[in-house]
Amino acid sequence: MQPQQAIDALTQQFLALGGTLECNASLYRLLIEDGLLTGVEIERESRLSAEPTNTVVLTTGGFQGNTELLARYVLPDTSSVILRANPYSTGDGFMAAMSAGAQASQGLHAFYGHAIAAEPARFDFSNLGEVSQFQGLIAVAVNMRGERFADETAGTGEECLNQALARQPGGGFFIVDADGMEREVLKGVGVVAGAVIERAKTYGALVISSPTLEELFDLLAEQGVPRQRLATEISGYNDAIKNGREPFPPRGKNRYPLSRGPYTAVKVKAGITFTMGGIRIDERTRVLRRSGSTSPLAPVPVERAYVETDAATITIGDDYRQTVIPGLYAAGCDAGNISHTNYMGGLATALTTGMTAGKEAAMFLLARQYS
Q1: DSSP code of 66?
Q2: Which SS3 state, helix, strand or coil, does residue 94 take?
Q3: Per-residue confidence at 279, pLDDT binned at 50, 70, 90?
């Protein structure tokens, strides 16, 4: 199912169950009185209006579209990434929760995404999948200094390589040989690197091919990559792999040398699909408050652990106490640190946290009505 099809199906189900959908209305802030959620302030056509409510589920999709928040928490230079997602997830839920006294999660530095064909490639939101470069796991990745900068195979997919790529000024190149062009890059789908690269070429991606590594080094030097540094790096990598030694950086899987021409290099930049850090929640997706809570880094003394809980506070032992903001929940990418550097799944997270948050919010409203 394509994204728009999924959205249409979910929208129809939401409306059929009695929901009201309002578009072009932005969350401005949460209204809190005496520690309790009393409403939200909504911006419509540059005008603010207050809406009373005792329950809010924050699902604004993370803050990958907000350059200020990215620079504050993720990357000093946000020009090093390309937004590989919708442009509307600008952190409204995260900022509103922080202003209301919520805790931020761990993992604020991390994000999920895939490398994307860099300039001069031209594309728009509808083409993001077609210019994504999935071959990093079977390629040799070098930065603009001609250096390998990460284990290309770390993580559950390419998320660790992509995060490392985001911290390389100017991006870099994914290099494969003739064998690599024929290797599968998406498990179970049958897509090979050569198909991914050819598709990117139709969007103007910078793709450089040559029959020998020496000629490839010359061509990449014309793009600003230091030739001698690159030649030394690739030679050292090939030698280590062929002789069973560990290259630097290490290579955990897919230990293929670049040994059979022609050789192909694609200019890439990091793509950011969603932020992994966000609002700190408990196992019931309730948003945790900064005040009245202990640090999440504090050890929990298991030998004297016990649980005390009421509507707003969870206490385990003497050194662990978390206070919730009653009526406030977060799900999907707004709920932080479910993935932390390594990818745990975006749609699965949205489904599980969304269902939990909806159920908890409904139970909270019922409890308020009968209290």
Answers
A1: -
A2: helix
A3: very high
81-83 and 191-192 strand pairing: unpaired
H/E stretch holding 328 reads strand 320-330
Residues 119 and 265 in one domain: yes
Domain of 353, CATH number, reads 3.50.50.60
- Read off the amino acid at residue 90: T
Q: Provide the β-strand partners of residue 315.
A: 308, 321
Cα 316 from Cα 172, distance rounded (Å): 48
Spatial contact of 206 and 125, defined as CB atoms under 8 Å apart: no
Bridge partners of residue 288, in order along the sequence = 324
**Among 272, 288, 310, where does a domain finish?**
272
Please compute, for residue 342, the number of CA atoms within 13 A of its CA located in the half-sphere on the CB side.
Answer: 5
Provide the token pair at 290: 């900064």
| Residue 320, pLDDT score | 79
pLDDT band at 81 (very low <50, low <70, confident <90, very high): very high
* CB burial of residue 353 (10 Å; 0-12, 13-18, 19+): buried
Q: List the one residue out of 204, 178, 173, 172 whose CA is nearest residue 193.
A: 178
Distance CA 274, CA 159 (A): 11
Residues 122 and 260 in one domain: yes
- What domain range includes position 168? 114-272
Cβ pair 180, 193 in contact under 8 A: yes
Whether the pLDDT of residue 298 is over 90: the answer is: no
CATH value at residue 149: 3.90.700.10
Which pTM value belongs to this model? 0.92
Cα 131 to Cα 76: distance, rounded to the nearest angstrom: 25
Q: What residues pair up with 31 in beta bridges, in sequence order?
A: 39
Alpha-carbon distance 112 to 90, whole Å? 16
CA atoms within 13 A on the CB side of 370: 5
Residues 173, 114: Cα–Cα separation, whole Å: 14
Q: What is the mean pLDDT of the chain?
A: 93
